[in-house]
Amino acid sequence: MTMPEAAESGPDTAPDRLERPRRSANATRWAVVAGLVFMAGLAMVLLFLLTVATGNRALYEANFGWLVAVNVGVATLLGLGLLWLVVRLTLRFRKGKFGSRLLVKLAAIIGLVGVLPGLLIYTVSYQFVSRSIETWFDVRVESALNAGLNLGRTTLDTLTADLSGKTRVAAEGLARATDAQAVLALERIREQLGASDLVLWSASGQALGSSGLSRFLLNPERPSPAQLRQARQSRVIAQVDGLEEGSDGDMEAVIAAGQARIAVLALVSAPGLGLNAEPRFLQVSVPLPAALVADALAVQQANREYQERALARDGLRRMYIGTLTLALFLAVFGAVLLAVVLGNQLVRPLLVLAEGMREVAAGNLAPKPALTSRDELAGLTRTFARMTQDLSDARLAVQRSMAEVDAARDNLQTILDNLTAGVVVLDEAGCMISVNPGATRILRRPLAGQLGRPLTAVPGLEPFAQGVQAQFERFLADQGPQDGGYWQQSFELDGGSVGSPFEQGITLIARGALLPNAERLLVFDDVSDMVSAQRAQAWGEVARRLAHEIKNPLTPIQLSAERLAMKLAGKVSGPEQAVLEKSVRTIVDQVEAMKRLVNEFRDYARLPAAQLAPTDLNALLRDILGLYENASIPVRCDLSDQCPPVMADAQQVRQILHNLIQNAQDAMAGQPGAEVQLRTRPSENGRRVRLSVIDQGPGFSDAILKRAFEPYVTTKPKGTGLGLAVVKKIMDEHGGRVDIANRLMDGKVAGAQVSLSFAVAD
Length: 762
What we know:
- The chain is α+β, with helices and mostly antiparallel strands.
- The protein has helices at about 15-55, 55-60, 65-95, 100-130, 140-175, 180-195, 225-235, 245, 250-255, 290-310, 315-360, 375-420, 435-445, 460-475, 530-570, 575-605, 615-625, 650-665, 700-705, 725-735, and strands at about 195-200, 205-210, 235-240, 260-270, 280-285, 420-425, 430-435, 485-495, 505-515, 520-525, 615, 635-640, 645-650, 675-680, 690-695, 735-745, 750-760.
- It is about 55% helix and about 15% strand.
């Protein structure tokens, strides 16, 4: 035997570490198997000697010398193996290998424990064998045993014959009964026969009915085909079961379990003379009396043992002495060999543990080798391997958790990046920790490049940042509403002012809440379009009511003035007549102006719903362009051939364009060389088409840019301010967008631009 390779090799890969204990375990296993085979061979030799000595004393005496020579050879081989193991242990001890001292101690202890008791037992056994064999045998005992065996056989034969006759009679009684009637009669027959179990079998071996213990079995033990054939031929067969098990030495178990019984199988003739009628078989089991079974088995076992011992006397004595001598040799050398092998087995788990601990201490949590034997030390290696695996799994779980946290953070960042609302995280001092693209888009400032700075330090956002800071201060001081643990406030950010990032004023709805570590969360969204839509809806309602309230008295006023002029015509002097006519004309003109205003109110309030359909904007613009060929201010088109059809109401688009072209021409009135430009361009993603109306006039003032789409906001002396409001309302119906801006050239305003965005038709 050699010690495990794991203790003599350096660091290696995980598969090698797992393979070394397997190779060592395989080598040990083969050595143990070889030792067991050798020991079994010696045991077979001893058994052979006993058999020969019992049956052929002369053969044993003729081969006694050869057997002694074999014993000497075996002892020599064991001695050489023992010497080799001692040399190996000595070399390991001198090299200071881990576990050498423990292995020597274990070998010495186990060797002494095996050798000393063996010598003592040999001495006592020798004396006992040499003096006690003759006392085993007595002629009267042999006669008594034979008489007891004959008596038992006669009793069993009588019981068997009696039960066979009764069973045959019962089978003949069932021959005329159907299957159902036969099954009902089984319980009565069982009570008459005193049986423990009855089963009625079909010719194919299927149970038709049962009584007794078989009722509780799903599959009763059925007769073999050979037994059924024999019963068909002999009408009835019987046998005694259960005594064979007692003859093997398990007498108490047979008696306790009631296995000894008389089993009878009788043929039940088929009822009637039909060709399809099949015979049946009645199986009866009657347990043997426990006292009879015990006596029969005891006599049988005693007779067998006596006969075995009586076969040899003097030869048996010499055989036992020789066997004891062989056993002594085997015990002495086997004990020492077993001591070394067991010591090696005890030390090997410690070597595996020591190597594994060194690797774990170095931070290597790779799978550790574990022994497969069932002793406690091997179990300790398996426990250590599981512990190491648990540590490795825990480390992997931590790594997976970190990866999941990173993935969740990435997902959260992706969500924040794709939110239309702006999200800003501030620290306790109001400095920006993180922002999302939505915040940059809404506030028109590169906030991502100013992380770590206060929000109040961002140019153009000072009023908004101060308002947010004030809201957080009131929230922390419990001076404002804290419904749901947050505050909410709307902010109006002016556009067009110095340093403002907004071309037009916008309305923000902001909400603030506290985060762990004293951080603050600010979420805001641009609700300018919603506010504008609400204002347009409110103005529409106002226009509808004004049109209703104003239009009714206009006609009576005009008629009354004209009637007054008619009644007074020629009845007043010349100067007074002139004043009268002028006053009436003024009243009529103003009434007409009021009617036009009321009609515009009505049109704004009752703007029909858009009937959207695929529309070619370029073709529509070319058609409209023909209406302005002779205009004082020309209209020119710059159309892209890449524009796909859009979803629009052509009639309402015409209304929008006429309105915008008229506004542009009015803005450039009296300006030589001016022109209006209509331009179409597809968007970069191809989902929308942008239509722009560009003029070269003075542009929009800051006040107009802030409130351009509100009704009644205008710079024209006679305008109603409903033009852009109608445009905005129509574009809302189209699901589009309208933007106005001033065109700059060399830092100066070079005109105005109104842009309309339409969705592309699918």
